[in-house]
Design brief:
Layout: H1 18-22, H2 35-46, H3 66-69
Length: 72
């Protein structure tokens, strides 16, 4: 019998308002996902077909991977 996996979601850097609340310049967070965008990803994961499962989901903001996407 298939044993259900215990899902774990550990988001990376996200725009949460922490920088603004602590007086840190938040300009560097431009292009990072916010809480709503992480939540939409989780909803998509919940509603996969019953004969499928998701092993791992990595969610990165475009600014977080900018250097990786452009090798030049």
């Amino acid at each position: 019998m298939f044993q259900a996996l215990t899902p774990t979601f550990i988001p990376g850097a996200a725009r949460t308002g922490f920088c603004d609340a602590s007086g840190i310049d938040s300009a560097w967070m431009e292009g990072f996902p916010d809480a709503e965008e992480f939540a939409r990803t989780l909803v998509h994961c919940v509603y996969v077909p019953e004969n499928n499962f998701i092993e791992k989901v990595s969610v990165w903001g475009t600014e977080q991977v900018k250097e990786s996407l452009n090798p030049f």
